[in-house]
Fold:
Amino acid sequence: MEVTVTESAQLKEKPDESKLGFGTLFTDYMFIMDYAPDKGWHSARIEPYGPMALDPSTMFLHYAQGAFEGLKAYRTESGSIQLFRPQENFKRLNRSCRRLCMPEIDEALAFEFLKQLLTMEKDWVPGAPETSLYIRPTLIATDPYIGVRASFNYRYFVILSPVGAYYPEGFNPVKILVTHEYVRAVRGGVGEAKTPGNYAASILAGEEAHKEGYAQVLWLDGVEQKYLEEVGSMNIFFVIDGEIVTPELNGSILPGITRDSVIRLAKHWGDKVSERKISIDELVQANASGKLTEVFGSGTAAVISPVGEIKYGDNVFTIADGEVGPVARKYYSAITDIQYGKAEDPLGWIVAVA
Ligand SMILES: *Cc1c(COP(=O)(O)O)cnc(C)c1O
Structure:
């Protein structure tokens, strides 16, 4: 499939790399293609970034039949541009598509299109330490129709956003709140898909946590409200008695690529790691007995997000004296060093693009 390119009449000025935030600036171009039942995916094109005309009855806007991905392009010291495990993002997008009854996209083709867009936009990949170009592939249902069913037509698009260091003031632990009032996902639901409704459903709990001075919500499972699942929109890890523990994937947890990378690196290095159910009661006990030494979140945006305090009911407990623990620090450095090409890539995760 050929990609039609429409040149922009005026390119934007590149931002000051020392002042980049997250998710507010977008590059000059975006990739778009459409799906129709009789044509399959068609009309692949790169166009100037800008508003898209959608019929007000577009099904996605009403019923949230959609999915997205999030990955980053990194500039190395030599100036080249590389991605971290991008095939995993396209595989996961297709898993989300299957759950949401949407057509899949050939993974190799999606990667070729992304490479073409990145090659055009390579000057937008910032080079300052810890900055990157965030990539957001998105797929939405586009039938103009009111009524619940699977759409027949879809649009896939990819937008790019230069982003700054996630920790501009340094690597600081966050405070998190365990919620009993709300759940993020339930058994049989769409928790393991990266689908917009999950995020809409999580906003109220997040807002209430912020009002209490907490950065994120620690989610319990939606069935018994007993087992730990995720933190905010990150996966979660605990260090208990010298072992790295993360909740096992159960259908309501998002299978994070950063999560998988921590597990694989731990196995590669021979660190003790396990995926299993872990209850809030076990966490409270492990903390009381001094065996809980670290808690951290994992995700593409922050990579590793150390937790310094957890509030559960009336109990507030401090983790690792509110400092960044050695395990969080080790995995943060190891993963970011691989992503920026500062360390060798022992597990073959890096894909050069430009
Ligand atoms: C995207 C996401 C993650 C992290 O996944 P990564 O692939 O590591 O970025 C974790 N939890 C939720 C709910 C997410 O949406």
In short: The domain at 4-163 is CATH 3.30.470.10 (D-amino Acid Aminotransferase; Chain A, domain 1). The two ends are 21 Å apart (CA to CA). The chain has two domains: 4-163, 174-339.
